[in-house]
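Entries read sequence, tokenised fold; example below:

***
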Amino acid sequence: MPRSGTTLMERILSAHSKIYGAGELNFLPKIIDETYINNYKNFDEVIGKIRSEYFDNIVKLSNKKYIIDKLPLNFKWIGFIIKAFPEAKIIHLDRNPMAVCWSNYKINFRDSGMEFTLTQTDIAEFFVLYDDLMKFWFKKFNEKIINVNYEKFVSNYQICTKKILEKLSLNWEISLKNYNKNNNRPVETASLHQVREKIVQNTSEQWKLYKNYLIEIQNILKINKINF
């Protein structure tokens, strides 16, 4: 989900010499929209086209071993990603649902596709859809997805990052310890200020300061048996 910690995760990992953080790329949804949704012919042909066109775009960005595409809404396309890029690593950030919903609701996004954040009902119902879809992906492709709990990650990011690097067959580098000093790439998301400072813990509890005004979100999550 947006506001689940994806920018922080990308910022830390891209401090590694073999990883390039490309930010929120729009290549994949555009290609899927053009080749599948609007012009569906043959599924195998579509998968081949998605792979070739996506690679044509990302090879222009960097020649490093790994390139991070951190567009959060790519969670919708995990089936396509796994079919088109079986060698890809998918990192999923699992954060407290109320923290995610509140963080999305409080920001006035200008990005297209973020209209679901405008009301408490919409953001909560969108989270329910996201949660249901992720359960499906985990059931079907569990071994392909690296799941990271955000709260545990910020409590000890070095240990968690080392575990992620092991799954990427990469070694720890001292540059990751000083990720906020060594990485000068501009940040273009709502997490601009947070990722330039030291990691702050317990941010997932901030929504509780406004819990009496977030009743709609809480009720929808409870009805759908989503714990927070």
Q: What stands out?
A: DSSP finds ten helices and four strands in the chain.
